[in-house]
Protein: sulfate adenylyltransferase
Organism: Dissulfurirhabdus thermomarina
Amino acid sequence: MAEIGHGGKEIVERILPPGEAARAVEGLTPYPVRDQIANEVIDIAYGWFTPLEGFMGRADADSVIRKMELADGTVWSIPIVFDMSEAEIAEYGVKEGGRLLLTYQGNPLAILDVEEIWTYDMEEMCTAIFGTAEMKHPGVARTCGYKEKFIGGKVTLVNRPRINPVFEPYFIPPLEMRRRFREKGWAAIVVHQTRNVPHTGHEWLMKGAWAQAYGGLPIERPMVGVLVNAIIGQKRKGDYIDEAIILCQDELRKAGYFGDHNHMTSLTFWDMRYAGPKEAVFHACIRVNLGCTHHMYGRDHAGVGDYYDPYDAHRLLQSIPKEKLNITPVYSMNWLYCPHCGEITSEGLCNHKSEWQKFSGTLIRSIVMDGVKPPRLIFRPEVFDLVMECADRYGFGSPFVTDEYLAKRTPVFTIPPLG
Ligand SMILES: [Zn+2]
């Protein structure tokens, strides 16, 4: 059965079987790629980026920048590009019509068909995507750090990544994800984008979104699932470590706050651009490919600093017709702890405003740093214990990213030698 993804395009894995891969890479010039490109090669090859079959040529990128759609009219908000310097293009003999063997960690990863070598005005690209060209915006800094030329062309994976055992159960590519959704019988799936260890505010965001997505469905059996989709990519110091994020999110299910019938945890490889509204649209596109029907959006989705109004993302999503982006945004209000009610409540519900205790990042951080178990209405005890365990096992004593973690952590995936 054909699986139809974003833009009405069939999801097809672009992956060669081992024997064929070994023959295909013979004689090709190896070119080592950095982490971001390796992540995106995997996303393209497994169908997370459907309808893209490779890195963008100029026509697609230009259309994304000017109109937030690919040249064929499919909604797309962030250029997916492969950059190379002029010196590298000369050194590796890159020519239109040729092929490059992309390697990662010293081993073959994928073949790139060189269809087009192109350039773009980077200030124009940044202003359109981020609304600013200021280098202190981390997405602008990343984008302006690209080398001066881009290579457009199809990507074919020759070697599947070997996922580190901690993350392996959560690496669920689009075709497999859709199979699992069918197996569970979910009629609606609401996705929760995260880079956090969940406190009860997050738990209730998911519970609230679950109820919203339930809408008018019959209640004979559970038919709505929450998909936690953690973004795994380049880390910044002070972020939660990846192991704590993924394991603690799943702990909410394991400890029974959700169940197999309504909750699943997974990951997507992506280096955050912090593009606010444009990134919110991009997240919607990849979650359409995962088979989700609803997407949660809170305040300032994928934003940074004060570059975006907290509800810009909502407004941009609302301006896109459903036939162009087949996922329903679920807008969430903040959940907080009200000591008067003695429970978690929403800003839109109880009237004890002066007593509310909001889950600020600073509050949660200080709780985790103290290491003293907080009330279960703030942090589930199972989740809290697991954060502490992850700090010891994977974080060199800290649940947050440190220089030591960056230098010594086990990679999320490795590329083995071919064959
Ligand atoms: Zn209250």
